[in-house]
Amino acid sequence: MVIENKTFDEERALYGSSDLTVKNCRFDGSQDGESALKESHDIAVESCFFNLRYPFWHDDRLSIKNCELTELCRAALWYTGHAEISDSKLHGIKALRECHDINISGCSIVSPEFGWSVNNASFTNSSAESEYFMMRSSNLKFDNFSLKGKYSFQYVDHMEMANCNLNTKDAFWHSKNVTVRDSVINGEYLAWYSDHLTLINCTITGTQPFCYCTNLKLINCKMIDTDLAFEKSEVEAEITTEIDSIKNPKRGKITLPRAKELIITEDCSQCEIVQTSLV
Description:
The chain has no helices and 29 strands. By secondary structure, the chain is mostly beta strands.
């Protein structure tokens, strides 16, 4: 069934639908109804405008293409699985939560608290502005993705990132099993308490990165304007630039051209620091 060029503003306008294609429709109006497509499956939505709350809860096999979800379209997708979202604006708060098997491409995300407790999701050629982005989510992939936010990727488990540009403080706190390649990460207090974080060919800036980490690896990375790095951390690092300062690393080996300052106030004998420009 195909529905085209309609406007819906009533409560649960298309609740419980299946095998439905919705094109060029508006979910907006004076009745201010919620949950337009709740409890639906096998739904394709294309070139539609969503200005009402909770449109896609408990859905399965969902396609959203070339749509706009406004800031009034809050909590748009919850408890939904097997969704393909492409070339769309996701601009409502808490737009993705408790969802699984989600693929997002070519999208603009402006959404505080986006992506909590999501399992198995991919993001390509997209951007996001968000606080607490993807908190407590797992099995994630990002490629050609840019982020502006705070407190991103906290408590995530199993994530791969490539060709990303991240401007976010407190990123990767308590994260586990994360690999980041060929990316730029700007932000303060990066990756505290992380476990099995690996960064390859990355550029990192910001104060006090990588504290209280375990199984931390940096391979061929640049660290620019970074100070007080690696405090209390277990680290294996190959760094190609000078660091402003390293403070009390716990265990491992750090190789770099030079640290402008070594702050050693505790026993750090289990961590070897090799400054190649001084050898």
